[in-house]
Design goal:
Blueprint (H helix, E strand, L loop, with lengths): L1 E5 L10 H15 L3 E8 L9 E6 L2 E7 L14 H14 L3 E4 L7 H10 L2 E5 L26 H8 L8 H17 L4 H5 L7 H6 L2 H15 L7 H19 L5 E4 L2 H10 L6 E3 L6 H4 L11 E6 L8 H9 L3 H5 L1 E6 L5 H14 L2 E4 L6 H6 L3 E4 L9 H9 L3 E4 L2 H6 L6 E4 L4 H13 L17 H21 L1
Parallel strand pairs: 1-2, 1-5, 2-4, 5-6, 6-7, 7-8, 9-10, 9-12, 10-11, 12-13, 13-14
Antiparallel strand pairs: 3-4
Length: 481
Amino acid sequence: MRLLLVSHRYPPVHAAGTELYTAQLAAGLVRRGHEVRVFTAEKDISAPDLSVRERELDGVRVFELVNNLHYQDPRQSWELPAAAEAFARVVDEWKPDLIHFQHLLHFSVGCAEVARKSGAGVVMTLHDYWLQCARFGQRIHVEGTVCYEIDRARCAQCLSHFKYAQTKAEQKLAGWISGLKEKTGIDLGPVARGAGRALSRGTERALSRGTERALSRMAVEDATARDQLSEELWTARLAERDYDFRTRLLPSIDRFLSPSAFLRDRFVEWGMQPEHIEHLATGVDLEAFGGLPREPRGDIVRIAFLGSMIPAKGPEVLLEAWSRLSTDQRSRAQLELFGPAAQPDYARRLESLAQACGAELRGPLQREAVAAQLVRTDLLVVPSVWFENAPLVILEALAARTPLLVSRLGGMAELVQSGEHGLHFAPGDADDLARNLGELIDRPERLDDFYRSGERPPTLDEMHDAVFAVYERVLGERAAR
């Protein structure tokens, strides 16, 4: 078969859960003898906005749409005709048998319509709640609280504080940088992305004094600029967005897939027909994560966090809980947090908390080092405060048989059976998390009680076989119409 996978981001630059899921699926399908291509997006202010470039990764041809978020209206965040047109050119030229969407962020609802009109089978995996929530698809209000119910008026109030696009000055700067690179070959993209960093001496010599001043002025102006919109406009746009997804996207997809039963239930509540969406569990590379022997637990309980340093992932909750342990308890354990740097203000907050309570912020962990870290970790804490779907770090911890302490919320509670793989705590509750941590530090032998059964997550091959079976059913149903 010819199979086209669509993801809002793709490795090697991006390696979060959705991106890895897509890359692993591409590799699995290629191993089964299918021809696979990927359509993705990337922000690159040194390249012309909405241009398409090609590259190859691990034998898979990748089409990359440059989307620098030069939106003039919120509608363009889900309805971007140029993105649909670029996608149509790839589809028309290659004529895939089936198109599998992973995400439409940075693309357009029109891409789904293009897929439907092409005659290909169309499948979409829902990795988060983006169809319901325009703020990163996390269903978290700007105040930091979970949106247990969808309230459009509350959504509008939240999104009026959301920077959905680049500001006018940022767009002007990006256009100038793109033009400079095209004319001279000088790429100032890295300089602009590193806000506040001084221009290199070589770049200073290459630029005129007036141009240098203009560049610096625009960078400073945009450091705090926000094009916030009124709640009234957002209310109107959210109604349009919901209508487009229900009347244009849903009819264009033959089958939706959900990595967790929890997320599937939330979309059925939203109005999706139960037979239109099925739960299909995410697989894990058991050879990599289940093949290493666990390091024996020592006198010091090794506790870790692996994830992005963003509020939704809850690192602050963990550090606050750690600070509430007694000095004696902290002396018998260590806490290390691994993850890419947060936004500057939040990063400073985390650094201050970590320094005060004796935790270590270790920075990002290379992908190839994750398995080794999991087998030497006595307890992995996943304190996310949003409805996580099927977090890859939990699946990999289950494969490595690493005890888990997770928020009693969403797909986290679904994957981690309390008493079997670890324990749950009240989401966002530093006191409850501290209580659980303290009890496990005081009685570390309890960690040995987990994983008594030999059950493991499905393998990548099992998952890919299941996904391909969906492809065959979709194409069979389409042929029978």
